[in-house]
Amino acid sequence: MLANLVLILPFGRMADTYKYTYLIACACLLKMGAIGAFMQQDTPESWGTCFCFMAMAVTHQMQNLFTDALFTKNLPSDIRGVFCGLYQFFGSLGVMLYSLLGAHVFDLYGPQAPFLCVGLLDLIWMLLVLIMYITPSVSFNQ
């Protein structure tokens, strides 16, 4: 939690400075790397496991911050609040549903399976961002 509090301002500055296509893709790649490293840890009490968990939390924060910045800078002001509210609502709904799904996946396939699912979802998100970047009707000029 302390790492998130310390890094939120530099990440906000990055969101104001660089293109979102690069930032979101970079955050997804870093998160997938942290998940992969976490899955290689043998002991839950090790410093490596602690570092991997912090990296997963920080990269998740990066994804949320960059997506929020993307919405607030590119949506028209008359619908911005509605879309940000919908984004938060579906994010909360996703956390609740994935908690349930992750528990079942854990029980069926083992302790690494929920993390593989998150990595797969991040890969899908990266592909969607790439498709939107290639599509000429979507503007990522900010």
Short description:
With 142 residues, the chain is mainly α. The protein has helices spanning 2-17, 20-39, 47-74, 77-109, 113-134. 84% of the residues lie in helices and 0% in strands.
Account of the 3D structure:
The mean pLDDT is 83. The protein is 84% helix and 0% strand. With 142 residues, it is an all-alpha fold. The protein has one domain.
Write the layout of secondary structure elements.
Elements: H1 2-17, H2 20-39, H3 47-74, H4 77-109, H5 113-134
Helix pairs in contact: 1-3, 2-3, 2-5
Order of helices and strands: HHHHH
Q: Tally the helices: what do you get?
A: 5
Tally of DSSP β-strands? 0
Q: How much helix is in the residues?
A: over 70%
Question: What is the molecular shape?
Answer: globular
Mean pLDDT rating: 83
Rg value: 16 Å
Query: How many domains in all?
Result: 1
Largest sheet properties = none
Low-confidence stretches: none
Question: Which band does the percent of strand residues land in?
Answer: under 5%
| Spatial gap, N to C terminus | 29 Å
Helix-and-strand structural type: mainly alpha
Features:
globular; mainly alpha; 142 residues
